[in-house]
Amino acid sequence: MAQVLEKPVQVKAPVSPAERTARRRTLLQWIAVHALGVAAALFFVLPFVFVFLTSLMTDSQALSRDLIPHTWQWSNYHKVFDTPGFLTWWKNTLIYAGLGTVLTVVSSIPVAYALAKFRFRGRNLSLMLVISMMMLPPQVVIIPMYLFWAKQLDLSGTLWPLIIPMAFGDAFSIFLLRQFLMTIPNEYLDAAKVDGCGELRTLLRVVLPMARPGIAAVALFQFFYAWNDYFGPQIYASENPGAWTLSYGLESFKGAHHTDWNLTMAATVLVMAPVILVFFFAQKAFVEGVTLTGVKG
Question: How many domains does the chain have?
Fold first, then answer.
């Protein structure tokens, strides 16, 4: 008869009080270290979760105290897209944010490069002027600017008064790029000039590839600003619904659906989603560009 081999039973050694105390101390240390981060994450995430869940509720449930939809109404997003003018707001916002970002980056890079790498009389004064422009609120000059664009150039009711000035640089973008370009060693520029590169070719072939994180950070800042801008479209484009952006159109949508909170929340999600997705995919370059800025003064 075949002998049946019995598997020996392993008896776990009892946990000593010292080991229990060490495990408890490790757990408490982990909670203490991560509690603030978890609380901060919940503080920022829960409002988005609330908005998203409310956007999928029925009209009656959105006015109740329920937090979870009984039936997931994905048709709310279809109703928002069918709202007259919503797609036009999308198009205008993409033009404003996209074109404005390109113009700002292209016009700010040469100025930032000159302030960072050139030695000329009045450079520090020019930098102080750029910084002073950052401190000037746009509301201070809005009246003369509106009179110039609306009365003299007759561009009221359009987004061009907001887009055209971006072709002449932005003080914050220039300063941020200048601080980043200061971190690029001058030896790379000297080597390019020894090889026969002029200033423009050095900028295009050497500086720009090395400054991609800083450029990405500036582009994201400008894109987010233009996408969320409410003040500018309200001043220049409020009289023409065909020139409204999403930020200004959302206010009109909210007024027309003041009792339909599910549709209002669905429109809010559609306005926020592109910004969140752009930051999610570009956060590495954004964080690198911001953290490396200001290493050198």
Answer: 1
- Each residue of 14-42: pLDDT tens digit? 657 777 787 888 888 887 777 877 788 88
Side-chain-side CA neighbours of 83 within 13 Å: the count stands at 24
62 inside domain: no
**Does residue 4 sit within a domain?**
no
Residue 99 covered by a domain: yes
260 domain residue, yes or no: no
**Separation CA 162–CA 221 (nearest Å):** 16
Say which CATH number the domain at 151 has.
Answer: 1.10.3720.10
Angstrom distance (rounded) from CA 235 to CA 245: 12
> Which burial class, exposed, middle or buried, applies to 84 when counting CB atoms under 10 A from its CB (0-12, 13-18, 19+)?
exposed
* pLDDT tens-digit map of 102-113: 999 999 999 999
Least Cα distance to 249 among 101, 97, 87, 95 occurs for 87
Other C-beta atoms lying within 10 Å of the C-beta of residue 220:
20
Task: Measure the CA–CA gap between 246 and 231, rounded to whole angstroms.
Answer: 12
pTM for this entry:
0.80
Burial of 194 (0-12, 13-18, 19+ CB in 10 A): exposed
